[in-house]
Amino acid sequence: MILPTPVIMIIHQARQAADYASVLEKTGAKVHPVASFEEANELLSFLHPDLILLAADMPEGDGRLYCQQIRATLVHPRPVLVLLHKSDDVSERISSFRYGADDVLGDPIDKKELAIRVLAHLRRRQEELSSSLTQLPGPSVIRRMLEQCLVVDRPWSALSIDLNNLRIYNETYGDLAGDQLIKALGAILIGLAGDNDFVGHLGGDDFLMVTQPELREVLSESICRQFSTVSKRFYPRDDIERGYLVAAGHGGIRRRVPLISLSIGIVSSTSRRFQSYVDVLTTARDYRYAAKQQPVSRWVGDHVQPLGSALVDARRARILVVEPDGAMACLLQENLSLEGYQVEVTSSAGDALSLAHHEPHPDLILLESNLSDRRMDGWELCRALKDDTALKAIWIVMATSHPDQSLALEAGADLYLPKPFDMNSLLSEVKVLLRSGGQV
Question: What is the pLDDT averaged over residues 79-93?
Fold first, then answer.
């Protein structure tokens, strides 16, 4: 696995700066020698060095004061400050630390010692900027990696990766269990990364990989496949056999939540030109969101699928209301229509099944369990809809006065809404489901 190239700035008189630069370039770092504090200030506005090596005695002033200035003006992560001091006096060296230097070295210094000390500081900085949970490079290192990708000639792809339904998993099994799942995902990414790939951890369950465009699909498929296998170890057998978790909301609302999966959004330098590292991250996350439209581990790339093509347009969404109470049916139809949905209403399970088969199929069915149809009640209708290959993608909201939420979810309902319910809560839940797109 690769890491971004370290950036070092040397502030010294021209000859000495050139000598030290020739040594530090051999460590693999990108070195920028400058001969004045003014020139250094111009570079600092966009260079973001990992380490600054500067002389205590410069023609224009005291290097210790410049250390103090950097500490006061640069936000985290600020560069490591290594001061080169000609004096052997202990008190003067101690004063350099008080001004803000992270290390004080002799000037001149043996070139081998300089290289080793600088490498030690860079290694320590890398550790400090890594995730404490996964030990992977954190946000600052990811930024540096993407910034370097934007200026190189060779093509690259970035994979934005995160877990689906982690919040529900944490609520069910605890945050420590969720952390172990995040660590497992990190281990999978490290194991699949090649010598020329980069893996970083932005925080939480948000990861980023950088790879070669020709490897993006194979790598994404491998990540999804391995995670689908490994994630089953993090559930009790009963939950694996049932195939879903139950999420509890306000007002007694219960919903079926698929077992945890992951989504990957892929962007590539071969598909578009990016303006900044933020542009890369936000665009990759947009494609990752498109991948979340199905409750399985899945990837979506900018070279495969137009962004947003999987989303349901709420203005065209179709809702079928199955409600035996005439007054309630009218109330539901009126409120849903005001939200812009196309609404059909019936009180019969048989008619509902027939309407559901008509093209185009409803996007969501709002169903009461207690129906007057002698052939089929609401529970049986729900099972019939979910057992039908052509209809199982339809969201089903079971709005019922029956007190046992487990019956609705076991019948296949995606959401259990106990009656009486608040109309605003219903509209909110419907909007969330329709924005989530289709199922499988």
Answer: 89
Looking at the fold, whether 53 and 200 belong to one and the same domain comes out as no
Look at 265-274, 329-338, 427-436 and tell me which has the smallest mean pLDDT. 427-436
| C-alpha distances in Å from residue 151, one per residue of 53, 160, 267, 361 | 25, 20, 16, 49
In a domain, 306, yes or no: no
pLDDT digits (tens, 9 = 90+) for 356-399: 999 889 999 999 988 877 778 888 999 999 999 999 889 999 88
Instruction: Report phi then psi at 137, rounded to 5.
Output: -55, 135
The answer as to whether 391 is a domain residue is yes
Can you give the residue range of the structural domain that contains 113? 7-128
**Domain edge (last residue) among 98, 128, 158:** 128
Residue 247 has pLDDT above 80, yes or no: no
Q: Hey, what long-range contacts does 195-199 have (CB within 8 A, 24 or more apart)? A: 195/1, 195/2, 196/2, 197/1, 197/2, 198/1, 198/2, 198/3, 198/4, 198/137, 198/145, 199/1, 199/136, 199/137
Per-residue pLDDT of 421-436, as tens digits, reads 888 888 888 887 887 6
Domains: count for the chain: 3
Give me the CATH number covering residue 185: 3.30.70.270
